[in-house]
Amino acid sequence: MSPGHNNGFSRRIWVRFTALNTVIFATSMMLVLILTQVIGKKHLTDQIRAQIQTEIQFLQYEFREDGLGELLEETEERIEKNPVGRRLQYVVQNAAGDVLFDEFPAERDQTGWQNVERQVDGKAVHYLFFYQTLSDDYTLGVGSTLASVEQFQAAIGKTFLFTLLSALAIGVASGFGVGVWMSRRLNKVLQALRQVAAGKWQTRLPENAGGYEFEELALELNRMFAHLEQSIANLKYISAGISHDLRTPITRLRNRVAALQTGEVGRAALLLELEKAQQELDGLLSYFDSALLINELQSGDLVRNFIGLDFSELLEKMLEHYNPLFEDADLRVEINIQQGIRVYGMPSLLQRLIANLLDNVLIHGAGGSALLVSLKMDSANACLTVANHATADPSVSVGSYELPAGLERKKMGQKIIHAITAAHGGKCDISRDAQHHQCRILLPLATG
Amino acid sequence: MKILLLEDDPDLQVFLADKLRHQGCDVYAMATCAEALSLVQSQGFDIYIIDRMLPDGDGQDWLERVRLEGDVTPALFLTALGSVVDKVSGLRLADDYLVKPFDFAELWARLQSIARRLDNVRTNQIALGDLSIDRVTHEVRKNGAVISLKPMEYKLLDCFLSHSGQIVTRKMLLEQVWGFHFDPATNIVETYISRLRAKIDDHGSASLIETVRGEGYRFVPRS
């Protein structure tokens, strides 16, 4: 992939983030302003209506108590008391429609709330009026300009425009910033993925790239890369092992067949050669079985067959099976097994694990040496130790933990032990010195 | 024994059919799932021998379909798919699972085991020649005298007596006696057989448990 592709990727990221941020900011601002507009207008209008209704009730009372004259007089007084700040308009008209008070004409026949527009100094002024019919068909109207509401709306409109522009600017800036920040980190991930895809399995992401999510992503991806690298290495190891190790037995097999073709052999010798050839073939099959098992273990396919099982019981049974072999090999066996240790696994695999460890001691352990098998439990793990201790006689050497191999050179048995342990989520540690060889296996305890 | 053999490799199919017929079996050999399906719908069999990778599908899917139709005929998978996962999934449907390559002797012994289970002929008392075992008390007698065997030695002898006269491979012994589905690197089978021979054989005479070179062992009863 060319660098141009990376630039294109970066551009796409920050352009999208910029656009997205701008839209989100602008939409949020619009919603806030529309809500403010609607709620503010309603609140102001309600205040005006309440004031008008209070005034209507008062004047209505005056009219009822003292008649039209008192109503007109009282209205006059109320206007005079507050001529400058006069916000309320009054109108009284008789049944014939003649205006008895103020210059404000009765422009509506209906009673109730009315919106009225009037030209004042060449400008349209809007009023809200309430008309109330009094006795003798007089009509009283009290109104107020809506200037405060209109001023509020105008102020909100200006604010909206300013805020929208600000939101657009902030949206563009923050979108650009976040986009660039994201694209830098995503580019690193992208580059790492491309390198892995190109076969550079050792590629890793910087794990302190900043940002919790990216840190977590980098950790998980690195874990995946490590697993891939390990799997590929194992695959290479096994492939190379197969291709190299098979040559020797296949050559032997070929030579046997060739010898049988060319040589004069009796029936007994023929049968012997055929038996040896069969053994070679069985060895090859065993090797393939081991390679297949390791592959299965590393792929994680077997985990779904795991069950909770009594590891102590399994180990005891295996030692019982092997006891005649220990006797024949003159091995002194010291067993220390804590009862009731349960692990989560596959019985046949754990049998094989134990068998491989015991086989190793039988194959490589010296007669008269001591075999210690112990199984203990700590807070989280079952700890199986198989140790072969040398005898006091220095001439008796202990065996090596080169575990039994399927074929000559490769330590297939040891690889199986590691693979089975890893498949069970455990750890395997093999240590050796001149006198002591020990294999220690930790397997997680079964929970629940 | 009427056997349906579902195997697509022509050479292996002919080889197995001939061998099984030679043992007195009535063999119907098929190469595809479709052929085998129409055959089992028209007639019954005692045992199915099924390959997995067939030209028109997986033998395991075929058996699953047959089982869903209520057919409980015992089955044995004979396949090159030898992974643990394959075996585990195969044994959920079939009675036995044998991985290629295989000895015919082993296949035949496994088929007979299945047939015996089918006939429910497992008896509590077995007397072969001068040797007898009681499966309830785990008592073994030779010429009437009790022989003391350890539990695994008893299981080994029981296995041999169950397959008297037949070749029993090392793999079969490991599976049936020790429950091992792998071949240990050490001579556990040979050690136990040696100990068993020492207890049941007469001094100076041929062993009751013969070694069949390149194949396995065979129990040969003598009076």
Q: How would you describe this structure to a colleague?
A:
The complex is a heterodimer of chains A (448) and B (223). Chain A is α+β, with helices and mostly antiparallel strands. Helices cover 58% and strands 18% of the residues of chain A. In chain A, the strands form three sheets. Chain A has a five-stranded antiparallel β-sheet with strand order 2-1-5-4-3. A five-stranded mixed β-sheet of chain A has the order 7-9-10-12-11, with helices on one face. A two-stranded antiparallel ribbon of chain A has the order 6-8. The longest helix of chain A is centred in the N-terminal third of the chain and has 79 residues, at 3-81. Chain B is α/β, with parallel strands linked by helices and 223 residues long. A five-stranded parallel β-sheet of chain B has the order 2-1-3-6-7, sandwiched between helices. The longest helix of chain B is centred in the middle third of the chain and has 16 residues, at 104-119. At the A-B interface, helix 5, helix 6 and helix 7 of A face helix 4 and helix 8 of B.
